[in-house]
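Form 7-S
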Amino acid sequence: MSGIEGQLRQVTAAIAPLRRIPVSDGALDTEALIGERVLVWEEQEGWARVTLLGDGYEGYMPVAALGEVAAPTHRVSALRTFVYPGPSIKLPPLDALPFMGQVRVGALADGFARIEREYGEGFVYAAHLTPAETPVGGDFVAVAERFLEVPYLWGGKSALGIDCSGLVQLSLSAAGVEAPRDSGPQREGLGEELPAGAALRRGDLVFWPGHVGILRDAQTLLHASGHHMTVVSEPFVQAVERIRAQTGHDIAVARRIRDQ
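Output:
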């Protein structure tokens, strides 16, 4: 990309897929949420080659999912929230926005926030929003626990579907801790590596090759599991034994983010 200047754009779709190749059935590498900023390098046949500014991921995104940059004022703090055409829950929703999506609020009225959208204004239940500069959750483990029973989706990072590293990234981001998107870089760069045999506790991250989970406590693992095809909480020892039996892999490393 040397010598090429990217164009700054913003995700305006609720959730935008980032695909490995520019076709609708191309492999899903990750997702971008409303309000995320991207650099667009080129556009062709309805697809934009982009870099996500938040975590550096590169791939192809539908041009229709992108719009002009406008500084967001709030984040979505509910797992999902509806966008209505007016300030009434009885109106048919226009859309549903994901947890940690970013929006620009124009005004508050009757318990609703009027937000600016590419297709016109919409209204969101105001209690489902948090000011952009305020962490959505203080305890990232408690945030992750809200995703229990969400379906597993490779590349997903919303309550419609999420993968193991997406759950870690999204939960930490809600607590104000930026994290890489994939488990490999997370394993290399998040927190402090714990020595083998160290006593584990709530909030520690446990890594296997290609997988990561979060300890709810020393005995319980919370993770988006491709085996269970959902976000599940299960006995830690049971998970370790199953993964060893299925893959031949033992725990590679455990890391501690900070005091939990």
